[in-house]
């Protein structure tokens, strides 16, 4: 991030704190609840956003060395992602060319993959290298029967895959100026230390919505996030369909006593990038949580359930410091724990760090989303209100509706 941008964000956060006034979009909108309940909308979303759109599957640290692989089953196309023997990131349909069984599960390291059905073998470049009793099967051109390769791009520490073999990934168009800013943080150097899945009875957009405002921090999260973060202040900027969302921690107050040239964004905030249509990329010093939100792939066409997959990454320096602290601990700074906020020198295990993050989302944010889902399904609540202090929700839902050809959000007259 450019230094002048970093300082301008901090200036804006100070201004809002001093004025006791949150970011102001200047308008209010109403959002039809039908977008959370319509099976027709759900079907169109799956095709538009999850079958015909590039998917961010992980950070580079999920494939840390040649031979690494991971599998993905969240958006309707089973994917096998590898870092081949030459270190190149590749992606394939995770299906044997013989009878379509999966050739890999989970993640790990492998030079080759053997289909469990009939033991056809593929290299981590996708080449078909072995067929048991090949003469029994019959003559087959192996060069034409490797794994189906998918478009795959590694850029700025992010791993992108297109679910269609004939799809196109254009990150310059998709990310614009935000691509260079994301790359400047060095996310590709971080290591994966944990992954969790949250299944919820709420539409995937309601899950997305919970990351779209700070209005609830001092209310819903008064005993958790509200102990660490300032509510009702927000650094916000749009980049096409994406946006940057910067939350102020209470350490921001300490910057006032420091010279301006010593100000650091990561010392006093928790930035988050929203990447259209379903990614929240939250980070701090030495840590990143990649939050991927999907309609439940086990319930195609059902708008009432979603799956959130959270991948947690740490820098090697943070891991080393944690190990030095004993039992793989990490300092509690920037964790979502009320106890930690009262003792900034406290130590948590890495697993506790990720658990606190995940449980806050599931037990507080998504619980509210489940309430919203049931209200929408009742048929008695025709629309929800997006306030002037919720510009990220205006932005996200406006682009969501535009992408599906739906009517624009309706402005609420004062």
The assigned CATH architecture of the largest domain is Alpha-Beta Complex
CATH homologous superfamily identity of the largest domain: Naphthalene 1,2-dioxygenase Alpha Subunit, Chain A, domain 1
Q: Please identify the top-level CATH class of the largest domain.
A: Alpha Beta
Helical residues, percent: 25-40%
Output the CATH topology of the largest domain: Naphthalene 1,2-dioxygenase Alpha Subunit, Chain A, domain 1
Give a short account of the largest sheet: 7 strands, antiparallel
Average of the residue pLDDT scores: 92
Strand content: 25-35%
Rg: 23 Å
Number of strands: 23
Overall 3D geometry?
Answer: globular
The total of helices stands at 12
Strands of the widest sheet, in order across it, are 13-19-18-17-16-15-14
What count of domains describes the coordinates? 2
Low-confidence stretches at least 5 residues in length (pLDDT < 50)? 327-347
The span between the termini is 38 Å
Explain how this protein is built.
The protein is of the alpha+beta class and 414 residues long. Residues 327-347 have low confidence and may be disordered. It folds into 2 domains: 3-52 and 187-411, Naphthalene 1,2-dioxygenase Alpha Subunit, Chain A, domain 1 (Alpha-Beta Complex), CATH 3.90.380.10; 55-155, Rieske Iron-sulfur Protein (3-layer Sandwich). The protein starts with a helix and ends with a strand. A hairpin with a 2-residue loop joins strand 14 and strand 15 (242-248). Strands 13-19-18-17-16-15-14 form a 7-stranded antiparallel beta sheet, sandwiched between helices. A 5-stranded antiparallel beta sheet has the order 6-3-4-5-10, with no helix packed on it. The chain is globular. The longest helix is centred in the last third of the chain and has 28 residues, at 350-377. The chain has helices at residues 3-19, 39-51, 134-137, 171-175, 178-183, 204-209, 252-255, 265-268, 316-325, 338-342, 350-377, 391-404; strands spanning 29-32, 55-59, 68-72, 79-83, 89-93, 107-109, 112-114, 121-123, 128-130, 149-150, 152-155, 158-161, 191-200, 235-239, 242-248, 269-275, 279-284, 287-295, 306-314, 329-331, 347-349, 383-386, 410-411.
